[in-house]
Amino acid sequence: MFLAPGTKVSYSRLSSAADKALASGDNWGPLHGVPMTIKESFNVEGMPTTWGLTRYQNNYATKNAIVVERLLNSGAVAFGKTNVPRYLADWQTFNQIYGTTNNPRDVALVPGGSSGGSAAALAAGLTGLEVGSGIGASIRNPAHYCGVYGHKPTFGIVSGQGQALPGMVAEPDIALLGPLARSADDLAIALDVMAGPDDIDQTGWQVRLPKPEKKKLSDFRIAVIYTDPEAEVDDEVQYSIQNLVAFLVKNKVKVSENARPKIESREAHRNYTS
Fold it and tell me: Among the options 41, 74, 114, 118, which is catalytic?
């Protein structure tokens, strides 16, 4: 994690202001006073946006990304940004500007990526909320590696404006944005704040998320894959998954060990990397 020049002072002032406002009954919103960090790839006014590339290390944002603005307008206090791999394109988190981010659960391990700095900051207790982005599990993967919560929302319901390098105009295909947090409840609060069309699109559509239909474990159907030739899983992890399956079956969850996607994993990986 890193801070922009002067951020410590600004954060201290905002934190004090949040406490005083709360004491006087002035509510800033659902995230009133929540300290949070932002994934490095998002524009935050006055902070660098590099995507881990040295040629952009002096690229300081002049305005906030839409999702950052929404979080701040809901009362969040952003005090820093978190590390990413180069081009946001890895399941580890290293670049030549900020160095390596390790997994706070075990510093000999990686935190995942590309939102690895986000998940590591949450797992270490450095931040209360994060915003991530992903194409190939860049939210879910680091959340899993670091033992925190991440949500991949429906494509397009969170605006990607302001998560871009200089010269990038169109949003990347299939890229999406979502929250990371330390609880599922926090994910829901954050997504409510983040979701919705940008100024241009709001004349054409709105987000009306339905209430969940499933209320208890037994309402769910779950497919389980213990290992795969393209990503072999060691015996210890498979054993843990088997224990989880036994727990789910005991709680009357419909579990299938045979259901598989219609596309082979090798073909899926080739499509993703080509």
Answer: 114
* Residues 164, 259 within the same domain: no
Q: Which domain holds residue 256?
A: 217-273
With respect to residue 211, please indicate whether it lies within any of the assigned structural domains: no
**124 shares its domain with 168:** yes
pTM value is 0.87
Q: What is the pLDDT of residues 191-229, one digit of tens each?
A: 999 999 888 777 778 888 788 889 899 999 999 999 998
- Chain-centroid distance of CA 209 in Å reads 19
118 is catalytic: no
Q: Is 39 a catalytic residue?
A: yes
User: Which listed residue (39, 74, 81, 133) is catalytic?
Assistant: 39
- CA–CA separation, 249 vs 218, rounded Å? 9
Structurally, how many domains does the chain consist of? 2
Residue 262 designated active-site: no
Pair 42, 146 in one domain? yes
Among candidate residues 41, 74, 138, 159, the one labeled active-site is 138
Residues 231, 108, single domain; the answer is no
Structure confidence by residue, pLDDT tens digits, 93-142:
999 999 999 999 999 999 999 999 999 999 999 999 999 999 889 999 99
CA terminus-to-terminus distance, the chain: 32
* Tokens found for residue 97: 């500007």
- The half-sphere exposure of 11 on its side-chain side, counting CA atoms within 13 A, is 16
